[in-house]
Amino acid sequence: MSAKGAYQGLCGIFGCTLINGSAAIIIHEGLKKLEYRGYDSAGLATVHEGKLYVKKGKGKIDEIHRLLNFDDLPGHVGIGHTRWATHGAPSPQNAHPHSDCHGLVAVVHNGIIENFHQLKEELEAKGHVFKSRTDTEVICHLVEEGLEEGLSLKEAVKRALLKLSGSFAVAVVSPLEPDKIVCARKECPLVLGLGENGTFFSSDLPALLWLTNKAVFLYDGDLAVISPQGYSVERIENGEPVDRAVELVSWSPEQAEKGGFPHFMLKEIYEQPQAVRNTLRAPRSYLENMCSVIEGSSKLYLVACGTSYHACLAGSYMLSRLAAIDAKPILASEFSEWCGNLIDEKTTLLALSQSGETADTLDAIKMALEKGAKVLSITNVMGSSITRLSHVYIGTQAGPEVGVAATKTFTSQLAILAQLSLMLGLRRGILEAEEHRALQEALLNVPKVMDFCLGNVGQLVKSIALRYAYAPSFYFLSRGINVATALEGALKLKEISYIHAEGYPAGESKHGPIALIEEGFPCVFIVPKGEVRGRLLGNVMEMKTRGASIISVAEEDDEEVKAFSQDFIGVPSGLPEVLSPIVYVVPLQLLAYYAAVARGNDPDKPRNLAKSVTVT
Ligand code: M6R
Question: Is 50 exceeded by the pLDDT of residue 2?
């Protein structure tokens, strides 16, 4: 079965300009350190005696090396790439480096060129011949045009980059200027390394630390020219030279992998604005494919486990509110018992899985396929089993998630579900154009709001976590879409801190759970401004009068909620309620993280759990 939609913007790039020695051997080793960023194909290009040499193939780096032998590529200057499912299937043609019509340049790229269709059409109309289905190849032909007009490599690259919209970390070599590499970044990581024997670039710092501890971190919009003797940096937009200082890195490779954070989980929590920003770049065509399948079906199930199931809950609310679609969220492990007899050819299953390998979810999918249903999926791992079983899939652009507790993949899943619901709402005439535009704008602004939130609440949440770290039990309560947030907050807390926690719809608490409340029992309320706020305040009071300690997550200017709360966590105001889980979950992730650390647990590797649960 072929999946009709997938895109990826991760990948790793690495390169060097050496005083002497083999660039290929160094790049090969560097790419292996970046392989976690992608491993469906890889390639190297070197420049030697006025010629470009390229070797690339499909598969893992070791497999390709066994067939092609990267290490015998000649020259002191070169670039390399390890890829993770980009435009077009993994294949030798789609593997990087890419080149132009006349072998004037080789290019490696991490990121997504959003306007590549349009650029490709323009270039083809001028006679350029494309060899791959990648977005990257437009860069090669744009640079080729500049070189043929007599521009220097740096100027040709700069002019090409100014035509791109989207994100990139890119590096270009040319036999016309054989001793240098021109590289640049916009919203994708790129760091330079300065060594005794030359200058290096890499997608991340850990892949450089075996060569040097002198690093130069490029900023968004920077273009650098590296040579064996050093580097210079300027701004892409206007060519203005800028000073980017050399930093002496004292991190061990292991510390560097965590980006200086003590744990992967904390790093991944802080990566969320970028993960959501990248995810929101999902090409319209993939979302449109999903919409068409959903519109053609009579039943829609949202199926997943754990945190991904909580995203299904929120997604079901979004689809109902924004597109008037009745989507039933169901745990994958319960799917066949509850819904097995209801599935037919008009049924669609939308399955969510960070890993794409969760056995319960795959079982539900296989059962649905046997009965003729259509399968859509959202996953963070391209090439995982779920992508092979789905008619249409979309990749979240969260990057690898190492911590066992899902964080950035959850908020990225929510971002795609919100996009899908908005698109369906417009297509089905449920949302007026103006309402759709305002919500779309609010969604695109979510990464910024997350950034503010992370900037403001970290220390506060840490201090709250320290005070409650030995509470025996917690409730997490809300109404509407944030019931999903409450359930997720409780799951995070229990899985890494080992404190008992329950998430509940707040209106249900008086039907039983309230019996447990006594003096000091911590109740976390998620209280966005919006439809549910009034009734939620009633639930807050019910708990407070019975002695509960109220920890609230609410809009920062909500004085009324603040007055009711022992602890008040303010998030930026003005977010539409239907999008609020994407931001409101962030303080809850931090609460769980700091409680776990306070209790001496390793939040990255909680007991009894695995990152990918491949048993049913
Ligand atoms: O890879 P998946 O999204 O399919 O995984 C589902 C659950 O196993 C996963 O979300 C689990 O609950 C996490 N430990 C939550 O943090």
Answer: no
Last residue of a domain, one of 257, 292, 320: 257
So what's the pLDDT on residue 35? 83
pTM passes above 0.85: no
Query: Which of these three, 204, 228, 257, is where a domain ends?
Result: 257
CA atoms within 13 A on the CB side of 223: 22
Residues 296 and 224 in one domain: no
Residues with CB under 6 Å of ligand 1 are: 305-308, 353-355, 358, 361, 404-406, 495, 609, 612-613
Give the domain CATH number at 231. Answer: 3.60.20.10
Would you state the pLDDT for residue 88?
Answer: 60
pLDDT value, residue 86? 53
Alpha-carbon distance 424 to 341, whole Å?
27
Q: Is residue 616 in a domain?
A: no
The pLDDT of 373-400, averaged and rounded, is: 89
Catalytic residues, by residue number, are 11, 611
| pLDDT at 488 exceeding the cut of 80 | yes
> Tell me, what CATH number does 480's domain have?
3.40.50.10490
pLDDT tens-digit map of 41-97: 999 999 999 999 999 999 889 999 999 999 999 999 999 999 876 566 678 999 999
Q: Three-state SS string across 523-576, please?
A: EEEEECCCCCHHHHHHHHHHHHCCCCEEEEEEECCCHHHHHHCCEEEEECCCCC
Domain that holds residue 455: 265-598
Q: Give the pairing type, strands 549-555 and 567-571.
A: parallel
With respect to residue 290, please indicate whether it lies within any of the assigned structural domains: yes
State mean pLDDT over 500-527.
96
* Beta bridge partner(s), residue 99: 106
Residue 405 CA to ligand 1 center (angstroms) comes to 7
| Digit-coded pLDDT (tens) for 241-296 | 999 989 888 777 667 778 889 999 999 999 999 999 999 987 889 999 999 999 99
Q: Same domain for 42 and 178?
A: yes
Residues 6+ away with beta carbon under 8 Å from 256: 204, 205, 206, 209, 249
Find the 308 Cα to ligand 1 centroid distance in Å. Answer: 6
Claim to verify: residue 108 and residue 237 sit in the same structural domain:
yes
> β-strands 214-217, 473-478: how paired?
unpaired
Q: How far is the CA of 592 from the centre of ligand 1 (A)?
A: 16
Tell how far the Cα of 613 is from the centroid of ligand 1, in angstroms.
8
Looking at the fold, whether 221 and 271 belong to one and the same domain comes out as no
Are 476 and 542 found together in one domain?
A: yes
Q: In this structure, is residue 313 part of a structural domain?
A: yes
Residue identified by tokens 């650390």 is: 597
Q: Is 29 helix (H, G, I), strand (E, B) or coil?
A: helix
Q: Which pLDDT band holds residue 3 (cuts at 50, 70, 90)?
A: very low
| Whether residues 232 and 275 fall in one domain | no
Question: Which tokens is 252 given?
Answer: 């061990």
Q: What integer pLDDT is reported at residue 8 of this predicted model?
A: 38
Mean pLDDT (the chain, rounded) = 93
The DSSP annotation for 424-458 comes to HHHHTTSS-HHHHHHHHHHHHTHHHHHHHHHHHHH
**Amino acid 225: pLDDT:** 98
Residue nearest to atom 12 of ligand 1 (CA): 306
Asked if residue 524 and residue 420 are part of one domain, the reply reads yes
What DSSP designation does 187 have? B
What is the domain count for the chain?
A: 2
